[in-house]
Amino acid sequence: MGSTVDQPAGRPRILTGDTPTGRLHLGHYVGSLENRVRLQDEYECYFLLANMHAFTTRADKPSEIRESTLEIVRDWIAVGMDPNRSTFVLQTEVPAIAELTWFLAMLLPFNRVMRNPTLKTEIDAKDLGDTYSFGFPMYAVGQCADILAFRPQLVPVGVDQVAHIEMCREAARRFDQVYCGVDPHAEEEDYEKLGGVFPVPSALVGRVGRLVGTDGQHKMSKSLNNSVFLSDTPKQVKKKINSMYPGQSREPDQPGDPAINPVFDYLDTFCKDEALRAELRDRYTRGDNLGDGHVKAAVIDSVNELLEPMRARRAELEGPGGDDAVIDIIKAGAVKANAQAEHTLALAKDAMGLNFGDRRSMLGL
Ligand code: TRP
To answer: For the packed helices 322-351 and 62-79, what is the interaxial angle rounded to 10 degrees?
Structure first.
């Protein structure tokens, strides 16, 4: 492996990613994407396209998964994630992740995995009943490997992913204790320093961990049909926001309660003009001749202002040759990702007494 992989003096690392089961929406933006864009220079960033995970619930839809994978890359670039500064990682081209999944699976009790609250919520939300695949709960262990293969300090995610990160932290501690002799009482931030292969990474939740959908009820989620997508046109944004129920029925001259009006959640989240936010909130509360359409118009403007530069960046990838450009980014990222992940796997196997010789030559490469 190249010597540039392990740079003690280099930047700390980030690993996070998305499952390609649909386009990204405003909830993803405030939950995680915004942090990714912001931290790209401070951290060495690895952004994962978790296409293997997409197969855990849709193994019979390979072409949708492929298209969605390319679409996520377009979303990422649109949002300002930059493949020249960060590494885009296609999960199925990084075999070390799958190998680490096996090793970590042996360190996590079966019942611990099955009690993972994020898995339980997903089983309910996606109506998976008890017919889900064996691979479905395994993805939670896989996610530990996704993360640890890059030995990152930080994992920027929405609040729904925190249970997974907690499990990943347990897997890291366990590995370091069992195979590297790290004292179970050691402080988490010392695990690597004490000879552990893995750091104990932290979750970083975005400024809005859970954004309500346009239904005003549930978390914004593609499958609930309550999402404003980053790739929506100005017209679609307008239509979706205008269709929102403002939580109460009132006339423009009647006092209202912004706290039960989800349109105000969006105003607070997306409108940068503090004076305008305060004015609308005040007039709404007092019933000072302020119709709901007025508040919605401010939200529509703010959201479109956020999405406009994304539309411009996306357009560059949508013309002829756009798919080829996306695939080139994926290929270049895989090379960088494998350098890092193979290095980690070698360290892990070494700690486990699984060092029998040169991997490349044994693979016949
Ligand atoms: N499960 C995450 C989601 O659905 C995607 C994901 C897969 C991920 N592996 C990861 C996120 C590792 C953070 C770190 O959003």
So the answer is: 100
Scored b (16 or more CB within 10 A) or e, 15-38 reads bbbbbbbbbbbbbbbbbbbbbbbe
CA 16 to chain centre: 5
Identify the bridge partners of residue 41 per DSSP, sorted by sequence position.
none
Contact of 218 with 212, CB cutoff 8 Å: yes
Q: What is the pLDDT of residue 5?
A: 59
Angle between helices 292-318 and 262-270 (to 10 degrees): 50
Sign of CA dihedral 331, 333, 334, 336: positive
Compute, in angstroms, the gap from residue 152 CA to the centroid of ligand 1: 14
Angle between helices 322-351 and 95-105 (to 10 degrees): 40
Instruction: Identify the bridge partners of residue 49 per DSSP, sorted by sequence position.
Output: 18, 90
The topology under which CATH files domain 13-210+320-362 is: Rossmann fold (3.40.50)
Find, among 141, 79, 69, 139, the residue nearest to 333 by Cα. Answer: 69
- What are 28's two structure tokens? 């993803």
Q: How far apart are the first and last CA of the chain?
A: 14
Per-residue model confidence as pLDDT tens digits over 148-193: 999 999 999 999 999 999 999 999 999 999 999 999 999 999 999 9
Strands in 120-252 per DSSP E: 154-157, 202-205
Q: Which atom of ligand 1 is nearest to the CA of 142?
A: 9
**Distance, CA 297 to ligand 1 centroid (Å)?**
34
User: For 309-346, what is each residue's pLDDT tens digit?
Assistant: 999 999 988 888 889 999 999 999 999 999 999 999 99
Pick the CATH number of 232-315 from 3.40.50.880, 3.90.1750.10, 1.10.240.10, 3.30.830.10: 1.10.240.10
Task: Give the start-to-end residue ranges of the domains of the chain.
Answer: 13-210+320-362, 232-315
Q: Which residues lie with the beta carbon below 6 Å from any ligand 1 atom?
A: 15-19, 48, 50, 53, 143, 146-147, 155, 157, 161
